[in-house]
Amino acid sequence: MRSTTAYEETGVRCTMLRGGTSRGLFFEAADLPADPADRDDLLLRLMGSPDPRQIDGLGGSTSLTSKVAVISRSQHPESDVDFLFLQLGVDEATVSDRQNCGNLLAGVGPFAVERRLVDPGHPETSVRIRMVNSDSVAIATFATPDGRVEYRGDVTISGVPGKASPIVLAFDGTEGSVTGRLLPTGHVRDEIDGIAVTCVDNGMPVVLAAAGSFGLTGYESHDELAGDSALLDRIDTLRRKAGQLMGLGDTEGESVPKTVLVAPARDGGQVCTRSFIPVRPHTAIGVLAAISVVTGLLLPGAVGHELTDGWPSERIDVEHPTGHLLVDVVIDREATPTRVIRSGVVRTARKLFDGVAYPRAV
Q: Which CATH number goes with the domain that contains 221?
C-alpha cells in the first residue's frame, strides 16, 4: 500500500472542473488512498488547507473552490458511476461528507465520459450518478457530439462569466438526503428563539426563515451580510439549534444544515434568497439548497408559503445576490407524508485542466 508521502514525488492524476458556480478537484477513487483518513490527509495537502489563502495548494480560498469529487464505476444496477462529494475546509483542516453538492455534480457526467468510465452517446449522453453522500440518484444529460464532451454552448448561469453547453440534472430519491425525512423535525413549521422556521431536506438539509425575522429586507448584498458579525452569530445559533431538532446532533463546525432567508422577489423571479454556507453568506445559492428551499415553500403552512401564490407549475426562478437560478420541483400534496414527484435544474460545467497534482510535504 502506498504511503501518503509517496504522492509528494509521484503526484496524483487530477482534473479540475468548474461545475455550476463551484470549482473542484475530480479524482478516480482508485487513484486515491483507500483509507479515508489517508485520503483526507492527501486531499487537504493538495488543496492547501488549512490556510485562509490556500497559497500552497489548488484551492481558491473560498468554500466554493475547496471541493473534491471522487468518482468510480458503480456496482449498483440503477447507476453508472458513484460520486462521493467532500467539502474541505479552507482555514481549518476539515473534510466533510455530510452533504451533496449540486453544482459540482454538473461536472461528474463529463468527467466520467472523459475518463471512459461511461461510454459516450451521440449526440448526447445521460449518466446515472449515485450520490454516495445521500445514496440517491441524479441523471445528468449533456452534449457529446461524435462521442466527445462539448463544453461550449450558449447557456449562461448567474455567477459564471461567458456561455457554456447545458447540463440537465434530474434528481430522484433526494427526500431526506441526510436526515432521512423531507421534514426532519416532523413539522412543517417550528419556532427557534422566537423565529419561525421550516426545516426541509430535499437534497440538502436547510433551515428556511423569513429575512424579516432577522430585521433584514432580504435584499442585502453579500458584503453587507458578511460584515455583520452579530447577524452571523445569530445565524449560527439558529442553525445549530435547528440541527438538533433535525436529528443531526451537534453541528458546530459542520457544513450542514444550511440557512436560507427568503423575501418577496424583486427582479422578475419568484422568490429572493440569501443563503449561508453554513455561516458565511453565499455569493449565490447552492443547487440542492435552492431545490430544498423551493420544496419547503411549496408546503402549505411553511415559512414563506404565501410567496408561492401565482407561481408557475415548473421552472421556479430563485433570485440570489448575483443573479437567478431556475429549479424545477413538483410535489404531491395529497400524499401522506408529502412526496416529491420530481426536481431538477440546468447547470453548466467546464474542464479547466487535466494532469498531475502534487501535495505539499507533510
A: 3.10.310.10
Count: domains in the chain: 2
Per the structure, the complete domain to which residue 97 belongs is given by 4-177+348-357
Report the pLDDT value the prediction gives residue 2, as an integer from 0 to 100. 65
| Amino acid, res. 108 | V
3-state secondary structure of 86: strand
Query: How high is the pLDDT of residue 183?
Result: 96
Task: Please report whether residue 112 resides in a domain.
Answer: yes
Same-domain pairing of 69 and 123: yes
- Specify if 41 maps to a domain: yes
Neighbours of 354 (CB within 10 A): 14
Q: What is the mean pLDDT of the chain?
A: 95
What stretches of the chain adopt beta strand conformation (E)? 12-19, 22-28, 67-73, 81-88, 95-96, 124-131, 136-143, 167-172, 190-192, 195-201, 205-210, 258-264, 271-276, 316-320, 323-332, 339-347, 349-357
| 249 shares a domain with 162 | no
Across the range 192-203, mean pLDDT stands at 97
pTM of the predicted model, to two decimals? Answer: 0.77
What is the pLDDT at residue 337? 83
> What are the Cα distances from residue 247, in Å, to 88, 92, 191, 298, 300?
23, 25, 16, 23, 23
Q: pLDDT tens, 222-273?
A: 999 999 999 999 999 999 999 999 999 999 988 899 999 999 999 999 999 9
How far is the C-alpha of 53 from the C-alpha of 61, rounded, in Å? 5
Q: Classify residue 182: in a domain, yes or no.
A: no
